[in-house]
Amino acid sequence: xxxxxxxxxxxxxxxxxxxxxxxxxxxxxxxxxxxxxxxxxxxxxxxxxxxxxxxxxxxxxxxxxxxxxxxxxxxxxxxxxxxxxxxxxxxxxxxxxxxxxxxxxxxxxxxxxxxxxxxxxxxxxxxxxxxxxxxxxxxxxxxxxxxxxxxxxxxxxxxxxxxxxxxxxxxxxxxxxxxxxxxxxxxxxxxxxxxxxxxxxxxxxxxxxxxxxxxxxxxxxxxxxxxxxxxxxxxxxxxxxxxxxxxxxxxxxxxxxxxxxxxxxxxxxxxxxxxxxxxxxxxxxxxxxxxxxxxxxxxxxxxxxxxxxxxxxxxxxxxxxxxxxxxxxxxxxxxxxxxxxxxxxxxxxxxxxxxxxxxxxxxxxxxxxxxxxxxxxxxxxxxxxxxxxxxxxxxxxxxxxxxxxxxxxxxxxxxxxxxxxxxxxxxxxxx
Length: 431
Description:
Layout: E1 2-5, H1 12-18, H2 30-43, H3 45-56, H4 67-75, H5 79-99, E2 104-109, E3 112-120, E4 123-127, H6 136-148, E5 153-157, H7 168-176, E6 182-183, H8 187-196, E7 208-210, H9 215-224, E8 229-230, E9 238-243, H10 249-260, E10 267-272, H11 275-291, H12 295-302, E11 308-311, H13 315-325, E12 329-333, H14 337-341, E13 349-352, H15 358-363, E14 389-397, H16 399-415, H17 419-426
Parallel strand pairs: 1-11, 4-5, 4-7, 5-6, 7-8, 9-10, 9-12, 10-11, 12-13
Antiparallel strand pairs: 2-3, 3-14
Helix pairs in contact: 2-3, 2-8, 2-9, 4-7, 5-6, 6-7, 8-9, 10-11, 10-12, 16-17
């Protein structure tokens, strides 16, 4: 991994220069994705057939997964994996239920009431990737918050494998959660199908699409935003670890590797004020990478421009780097992790202390692993019940309550040269 030393003031330009993300340009696939979307919109099932053969080498895919196939996948699920998935469901549901907001009623004056309600979207299409790996965990992370938010209709799509069906573990997890509308459609085709519907397989358009995916999925979500709601454009996964001399270099190396194995473009960054810790982590990386199953992918990620071992003057500088980088996953492994965690402004999720690895959040912590990447943590949040809710205000005023503000209403409207606004209030008081 690259070694970088940062001294002096931490600025956006400096971090962009020294810690760039991997070069993954959505624009590079925009034309292809536009064509895919147009074909699905115009040709429906015929387009899906053509795309399945073109991109995956599959013919005669049914796309809609029969209920009995979902049940069979659940029956065939390995018992320890089933128990792990059930534990994840329980924990994510507990956190989701605890964070579900309640409606608010404010009485500003006698007879002057404003209520804020939280209304779920009517329907969601949840995308679950299926490329280099399969992700039953992503089914849990998408479905459970949507269920807790009381979304009436939930559909799941994941790329078909060689047998024309999604991964067995993905289908089994859908069955565990009671999801019966499941499709074996992948990539941009799936996002377009959710947006415009495919009547031949009973797929009606959805209001919103969530879930991570590859560059084609991200491009499709960008192009279809407005036709459908989206959560975010997910990019390659990221981990940034803030650590001091007290940190265990074996833990740090393992955590960097755990994210690097996702993708050759994954970013793995360690920020510390200890030169000796960097040397120890480097030594551990050599050992642990050599034992890893996904060694080629890991080596490409750790050796990429997006990954680095960063030396700073002190922990204040380390936190400045972390906040400016705005990583998807932030780990704090220091002598005082809780204190430093209070300084975090920008991160998708924060893992506090030596025994809170990112991989725990990926599966069983109870938090959600669908998180903002590529500095989007500066302005957006991870997936939660709030993703599937809209706020709606109800305004109820009596005649007396309106009378108390009628003069101010008139003054405001005249100041903005919109006198009819004021008249709409005063006319009610002339009766």
